[in-house]
Write a structure and sequence with these properties.
- Keywords: Aminopeptidase, Hydrolase, Metal-binding, Metalloprotease, Protease, Zinc.
- It is an enzyme of class 3 (hydrolase).
- This is Aminopeptidase N.
- By secondary structure, the protein is α+β, with helices and mostly antiparallel strands.
- It has a domain of about 160 residues: tricorn interacting facor f3 domain (Immunoglobulin-like), CATH 2.60.40.1730.
- Helix content is about 40%, strand content about 20%.
- The strands form eight sheets. The protein has an eight-stranded mixed sheet, with no helix packed on it. A five-stranded mixed sheet has the order 17-18-19-21-20, with helices on one face. Strands 10-11-16-13 form a four-stranded antiparallel sheet, with no helix packed on it.
- A hairpin with a 2-residue loop joins strand 7 and strand 8.
- It is globular.
- The structure holds diaminopropanoic acid and zinc ion (ZN).
- The site of diaminopropanoic acid (DPP) has 9 residues, from strand 20 and helix 2.
């Protein structure tokens, strides 16, 4: 397959001033007629080169220009497109083609999901609908007419409905017009037998916007939370960014078959059902929060993505990094800020850091790709959001707002680059971000080595920070970055020391050199540094904290994130020791200090209870793996299981008391305080069940039978599945299924609990689940909840020493690739890290990966990931 390079960008040869689409929907043979008003791009050079359009798997029927059929001698069908000879600089092009939505299992383009027609065009799905210059810098005004039989009463597209009629044979005809020019990737169409809920929102300037959420009838009771979230997001974007919504109607549609979480199509967002549908009885707190953040994310794209879009796909983080930053701040404002930050950083540190250290490592603005779908990554999204967050930290909230105002004003209606974003931030603030730009071009996770010194005579404390960054594929040498390090200094009573004449107790050190020393004067004693507060940069910090100092920070740091982080460092060190002891065949013993620290965290009623729950969680196996030089999966599992069980046994009484204290029969509400209490309660329950003591497992059984909400029910089910005797676990799973078999989202949760189970027989169970009537290889959510959970979240069973977990994954990836390349290429990720594993296990992983390569013809998506990983 061909590699596309960022440096090869050139402006489009032709522009499309307007796009009129006409669809006659039929499952096997949908007729698409497209009328494009084409114009030679004055910025692209002279002459009239052929017009080259993208198109994949299309049946071409006819081509006309200005109303006259073009003879076949004047156009050529290409492997992935169409080239048409051009005789004048402006003309009306009409193309007719057919597609088969029913056979489209890639879920890109137009496809059917449970009988409903829907589309997914980002990044390059529109070319599976009709021939088009399918690139984001070609922006056009779209008008869409849909003709469909009566059984599809709801016919939707972008913009406003402008016309509705019937054909002579009784089919419905509806026309939509979107007044905003947009790239084809934001096009959407939906047709189905759908119900909807409706509400309205009055914008700051007093315009009424109609809000509608569409779903199959059986799910109509699950839309309220998304509607509330949408209204909160609309208000928040007005208040924090001064951005109003711009159309008279905003629609959201829930779809069961969807490759991603959701899609920000102009005025018509399409959502994966799992990311929009929720009710107290059927959805966990986590999914309530996920829905709020994704609804926010897609809504925020209306400005950061739609009004101002990307010039090319190398700039993807321009819209995704910025929009993730926006949604994270929205969630932080709606819920617990510290806990939101901890969750995001945990994900970044495990999965994104692993990506940065693996064969697919790439900068936030990549230089090349074979298949753009493979670059919807944690680096583009999450690290990209951290880069935007750093700009926010450097400029302050006000400066950042000036920058975003200028960016939106300057580039409204344009397709632009990451560079344009940074320049707007610079221009609005009169600052120079030259060195900061390296965050966009340099891959890999930087490391800060910090040392300090105190001169008692002069009262001077010096912090020396050395930065480095390991090599990544194609980038051997790294240059110093501009890194904001938020920090504070604690005195021996745990108070923050003033750091400047204004008595500020927190400072942002701007690290720009390979090595730099920062001095603080007038101190009476050597302070303890609290570094990288709030995780102010996506880096690893090494400072040689003693156990005592970490315990002290856990108790005293005024930065909640760093309190949590100190606990993580402490637990991390203890788990490292246990791994070493395990490998050396020594008896395992848990540091008593760790037990004491957890005991006092558990007793702390002043802290946000959700933070307490986070602080009680040991670093995940994936986190331990990311830190390891060579991953010894067996040692990681042994160390972590041992520590968890020791903690549970030592703190049994306190855990049970805390559990009891938090039991409540309040009616369910997903507010931050209640979520916090459930989170801590269920953390206690999970620990208690680890003891496998019958009396404590009874708590899980009781909770399972009495739970009035899905958060408690699912937590109890997981506890029983992982730790109860076989008969109890089996009967809980059966009961649960019988109760919820009609509910798609709950069945997916039920799949996940089983695939994630630490029980030895889980791989066989997973194979059996794939035979379950509710499993469907064509449905990405099912694939993710069964195979994905097993490979990504069941560290112990996936890494079985016999390599059977790897072989299983390889086999599924090959099967899936024939249906859905995007999802297959993503699913293979765990195997790509084989070089980091101890030799024996690593070799088994490599062999599994090689078997994918040797399986015959594989998709471009999968080929890119597998070939880069084997190289
Ligand atoms: N642009 C989508 C999102 O991240 C993904 N297709 O919201
Ligand atoms: Zn997005």
């Amino acid at each position: 397959p061909r590699t596309v390079y960022r440096k090869d960008y050139h402006a489009p040869e032709y522009l499309v001033d307007s796009t009129r689409l006409h669809f006659e929907l039929q499952p096997k043979s949908t007729l698409v007629k497209s009328c494009l008003q084409i114009r030679r791009n004055p910025d692209a050079g002279g002459g009239l080169p052929p017009l080259v359009l993208d198109g994949i798997e299309l049946e071409l029927l006819s081509v006309s220009i200005d109303g006259a059929l073009v003879p076949a001698s004047r156009y050529r069908e290409l492997p992935e497109g169409l080239s048409i000879d051009v005789e004048k600089p402006e003309f009306l092009l009409e193309i007719h083609n057919r597609i088969s939505p029913e056979d489209n299992t890639s879920l890109e383009g137009l496809y059917l999901s449970n009988g409903m027609y829907c589309t997914q065009c980002e990044a390059e799905g529109f070319r599976k609908i009709t021939y088009y210059p399918d690139r984001p810098d070609v922006m056009s005004k779209f008008t869409t007419t849909i003709v469909a039989p009566r059984q599809y009463p709801v016919l939707l597209a972008n913009g406003n409905e402008i016309e509705r009629s019937h054909t002579e044979d009784g089919r419905q005809v509806v026309t939509w017009e979107d007044p905003f020019a947009k790239p084809a990737y934001l096009f959407a169409l939906v047709a189905g037998e759908l119900q909807h809920i409706e509400d309205s929102f009055t914008t700051a300037s007093g315009r009424e916007v109609k809000l509608q959420i569409f779903t199959e009838a059986k799910n109509i009771g699950k839309c309220d939370h998304a509607m509330r979230s949408l209204k909160k997001a609309m208000r928040w974007d007005e208040e924090v960014y001064g951005r109003e919504y711009d159309l008279d109607i905003f629609m959201v549609v829930a779809v069961d078959h969807f490759n991603m979480g959701a899609m920000e199509n102009k005025g018509l967002n399409i959502f994966n059902s799992a990311c929009v549908l929720a009710s107290p009885k059927t959805a966990t707190d986590r999914s309530f929060q996920t829905i709020e953040s994704i609804v926010g994310h897609e809504y925020f794209h209306n400005w950061s993505g739609n009004r101002v879009t990307c010039r090319d796909w190398f700039q993807l983080s321009l819209k995704e990094g910025f929009t993730v930053f926006r949604d994270a701040e929205f969630s932080a404002d709606m819920n617990s800020r510290a806990v939101k930050r901890i969750e995001d950083v945990s994900m970044l540190r495990t999965a994104q850091f692993a990506e940065d250290a693996g064969p697919m490592a790439h900068p936030v603005r990549p230089d090349s790709y074979m298949e753009i779908s493979n670059f919807y990554t944690l680096t583009i999204y999450e690290k990209g959001a951290e880069v935007v967050r750093m700009i926010h930290t450097l400029l302050g909230a006000e400066g950042f707002r000036k920058g975003s105002d200028l960016y939106f004003e300057r580039h409204d209606g344009q397709a632009v680059t990451c560079e344009d974003f940074v320049r707007a931030m610079e221009d609005a603030n009169g600052v120079d971000l030259t060195r900061f730009r390296r965050w966009y071009s340099q891959a890999g996770t930087p490391v800060l080595d910090v040392s300090d010194e105190f001169d008692a005579r002069s009262g001077t404390y010096s912090l020396t920070i050395r930065q480095s960054c390991p090599p990544t594929p194609g980038q051997e040498e790294k240059l110093p970055l501009h890194i904001p390090v938020a920090m504070g200094l604690l005195d021996s009573d745990g108070n923050d020391l003033p750091l400047d004449d204004d008595d500020n107790t927190q400072k942002v050190l701007e690290v720009t050199e390979a090595e730099q020393t920062f001095r603080f004067e007038g101190l009476k004693e050597k302070p303890l540094p609290s570094l990288l507060r709030g995780f102010s940069a996506p880096v690893k910090v090494h400072y040689d904290y003693s156990t005592e100092q970490l315990l002290f920070l856990m108790r005293s740091d005024s930065d909640e994130f760093n309190r949590w982080d100190a606990g993580q460092r402490l637990a991390f060190a203890a788990l490292e020791q246990l791994q070493q002891d395990f490998r050396a065949g020594r008896t395992l013993e848990l540091q008593p200090e760790l037990v004491d620290a957890y005991r006092s965290v558990l007793a702390n009623r002043e802290l946000d209870q959700a933070l307490v729950a986070e602080m009680l969680a040991l670093p995940s196996a994936q986190t331990l793996a990311e830190h390891a030089q060579k991953i010894d999966a067996e040692a990681i599992v042994a160390a972590r299981d041992f520590a968890r069980r020791e903690l549970a046994l030592a703190l049994k009484d306190e855990l049970r008391d805390c559990y009891r204290r938090l039991q409540s029969d309040k009616p369910y509400d997903p507010n931050a305080a209640d979520i916090a209490e459930r989170s801590l309660k269920n953390t206690c329950l999970a620990y208690l069940s680890v003891t496998e003591e019958p009396e404590l497992l009874t708590l899980a059984e009781e909770q399972f039978s009495e739970a009035a909400n899905m958060t408690d029910s699912a937590a109890a089910l997981a506890a029983l599945t992982n730790h109860a005797p076989d008969d109890i676990a089996t009967s809980a799973l059966e009961n649960f299924y019988r109760r919820w078999e009609g509910d798609t989202q709950v069945v997916e949760l039920w799949f996940g609990v089983q695939s994630g189970s630490a029980r030895r027989g889980t791989l066989d169970a997973v194979r059996e689940l794939m035979q379950h009537p509710a499993f469907e290889l064509k449905n990405p959510n099912k694939v993710r909840s069964v195979i994905g959970v097993f490979a990504n979240r069941n560290f112990a069973q996936f890494h079985r020493t016999d390599g059977s977990g790897f072989a299983f994954l390889a086999e599924q990836v090959v099967a899936l690739d024939k249906l859905n390349p995007q999802v297959a290429a993503r699913l293979v990720t765990p195997l790509t890290r084989w070089k980091k594993y101890t030799e024996e296990l690593g070799e088994k992983m490599r062999a599994a990966l090689q078997s994918v390569m040797d399986s015959g013809k594989i998709s471009r998506d999968l080929y890119e990931v597998v070939s880069k990983s084997l190289a």
